[in-house]
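Re-run with default settings, no changes from the original entry. Doing this only to confirm the output is reproducible before filing.
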Amino acid sequence: MLHTSIRRVAATQDICGEGCVWHPQQNAAFWTDINRGLLHRCSLANGSVQTWAFDEPVTAVALTTQEHLLALVLGGRIVLWDSLAHRETEVLFRLPGWPALRCNDARVDPAGVLWFGTMQNNVRPDGATAEVTEWQGALYSLAAGGEAKQWLSGFGIVNTLAWSPTGETMYFGDTLANCLYRGSFDPVRSRLESREDFFAEFPRGLPDGSTIDAQGYLWNCRFGGACIVRVAPDGSIADIIDTPVRNPTTCAFAGGDASTLLFTSAADATQPDDPGDSLFSLEAGVGGMLGTPLRL
């Protein structure tokens, strides 16, 4: 594959940038800073950035079937947020156990159902990051207007939620275990029907957020590994893209032909010269799968 140079799209000084998604109708990228409780929007046409603050960590963003509404995953709740009026309109879910536990990564499956992970809350009241010491994470699904369903539990940090182009394979991961899993998935009934190890013990960093390209390859950001690894459907390594930041955190395809890969990053306190805390882009050389909207 050919990769053009990586470009910094926006410098937002995030402690932990996450939750990136491209909004086709607005031609804008939305992402978050978990630790500071921020939601960012960057116009890809002119690079202008807007930012909104919330009373909890903001961990992920999802499109919905109503163009102006976004689903925002916060530490202890999931809400609908009006991107025109800049306000919350509805609470879809409240997490039992918050603030000892918090929500983490989230994506929408082919049927329009939101899947999200949870973990021990590692965001201190002052915004600093604490160590995760307890394996309390779980995997949930949530249909708008319905109750959340817990599928699996006992994880360190539930991360990476993605589906194959056919929707018949689901991927998710546990950052602390350094393992990505895959399972058979019913894309009509939104059911995860199995789980097996898919990509484990890769030595460069730990698995953070991911996305899928049109060929069914998983692009996984490696926190602490300064790279994004492209993993084939059989679990082999197809490509490794070195990044200028030590902590790439999650990625999403964007653009008219969906061949631009956007990725977020987290600051690295051990590397003062690391150009982290930003939103970056690269031309992937392959088209990607765009985010499915939450069905309202």
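Residues 7-283 form a domain with the Neuraminidase fold (CATH 2.120.10.30). The chain is about 0% helix and 50% strand.
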